[in-house]
Write a structure and sequence with these properties.
Chain A has 241 residues and is mostly helical. Chain A is built from eleven helices and two strands; from the N terminus they run H-H-H-E-E-H-H-H-H-H-H-H-H. Chain A has two domains: 64 residues, Winged helix-like DNA-binding domain superfamily/Winged helix DNA-binding domain (Arc Repressor Mutant, subunit A, Orthogonal Bundle), CATH 1.10.10.10; 162 residues, Up-down Bundle (Four Helix Bundle (Hemerythrin (Met), subunit A)), CATH 1.20.120.530. The mean pLDDT of chain A is 85.
Amino acid sequence: MFNSISSKKVYEQVIEQIQESILIGELKKGDKLPSERELSDRMRVSRTSIREALRVLETMGVVESRQGEGNFICTNIEKSLIEPLSMIFKLNDGTWQNVLELREMLELQTVKIAAIKSTEEDCRELKAIVDEMKKETQQSSNKKEIVRLDQKFHKKLVSMSKNYLIESLFVTSSKLFEGFIKDAREKIIATSWTKEVLVDKHDAIYEAISCKNPDEAYNKMKEHMDIIRKSYEEMNNTENC
Amino acid sequence: MFNSISSKKVYEQVIEQIQESILIGELKKGDKLPSERELSDRMRVSRTSIREALRVLETMGVVESRQGEGNFICTNIEKSLIEPLSMIFKLNDGTWQNVLELREMLELQTVKIAAIKSTEEDCRELKAIVDEMKKETQQSSNKKEIVRLDQKFHKKLVSMSKNYLIESLFVTSSKLFEGFIKDAREKIIATSWTKEVLVDKHDAIYEAISCKNPDEAYNKMKEHMDIIRKSYEEMNNTENC
């Protein structure tokens, strides 16, 4: 006749407790969770509820189960953003312009922060990538290799922001981007005039960062992003014809 | 003696199929899912596996179950980003500077896009909020009311970007922000000199957007963000003393 007022299920309460432990810093990346039996004893719930909770956290990319070893907090938790963001995108009839806006936002903020926070070691690594790019475009023009170096450059850049929130969103937006226009990057790089322009832009971005000039780094990245946007627009116009 | 090579569990495959339907656009926001029985028949898996999958999707904030009505695709799916982002933040020893960097990034990109995409109706609504703010600060100085108007202004602004990715990340970063420094917004607004400066800045941001000037909107938002950053820095210095 009477129903329980709390509608929260037991496994949901278990999930909340584990998330809470992460949020207050008790559980850290790579940490091993107590065994299912121990969790069940401590929280005074059935092992079935513990297993259900772990299953959800595993699917969310928060916990990983290693056979014979137990359950661990994921080290690559940024993967847990990809699916929700992809679904938000689709459920709201997202366009490639939306993804590009997100990408521009991340890249522009990244270079500004990188110009402030970067170490000499960071700059050396970034320069090495630009040098490789130059060599590659002059010599072999191996498209796949240039794509790889391009990705390496932008990934290094975002790591120089030393902000995991931005890094995680970058990884997520890259996935979204790739899924959206699969080989666009290669097509853009294939057009020879853009290829050299791209290398020059990367060089200019590196220079501004190594001179610790956030405004200049922003402007150079903006120019780079404008080229990319233009290429996408042209590509989409062609496809619609 | 021999183990199955595929390690993917049945409920995980069910989740993948539902996510795939969202990603290819078959399932949209608010859509009702087929009944558990129908899903189980169509996918040829047990109802237990269907229930497990739905449970995970529910916890992730993708599906909502309405008693007596069935299962639906969530309309407020952006909630599904909050927990992963909060956990990424904590697991990487995030600082309030990291959250502020994310926030600045979202606000700055938002005003640039808003200045391009905003309609006359958008601008009227934004102006109404600024006018209310002015009135409130001149008359009553009700802190809670100013906080509410401030939030309303920034929320309206982000909706003018007409980019759900950015909107969702904004909602997510706001939650992260609030959890981090709970009553900072009120403290900042409480300092009377900042209060008037803030209203003037909001007005200037509105003006630049209504004139369709993205660079000016960016600069005004940058000034606004610099004030906020300074207030946080002062607050944190005080707290550390």
